[in-house]
Write a structure and sequence with these properties.
Layout: E1 8-11, H1 16-28, H2 35-41, E2 46-49, H3 53-87
Antiparallel strand pairs: 1-2
Length: about 90
Amino acid sequence: MFDGPCLIGVLEVEEAACRGASVLAGLGIGLYESIQDVARTIKFRETLVDPPPGWSEAYRERYHLVYRHIYPKVRDLHQEIIKAEKTS
């Protein structure tokens, strides 16, 4: 999964969560027609980073110890949230 060289794109933006929220708000009020419209309208500068070799192993360990266990545990909860939203 994390083998070999891997360039990672890092967005050059401060307050990424706020920017994401504003994009979603723009979609919600019709400022943008689609996520594709957002991609055409808003330019995100990105820097490609080549992580140090040891990071691959660190991420592999964390993936196997933690993250691969998360999805099965939240899958049912996610489905319940979807059902609740449909009934409200």
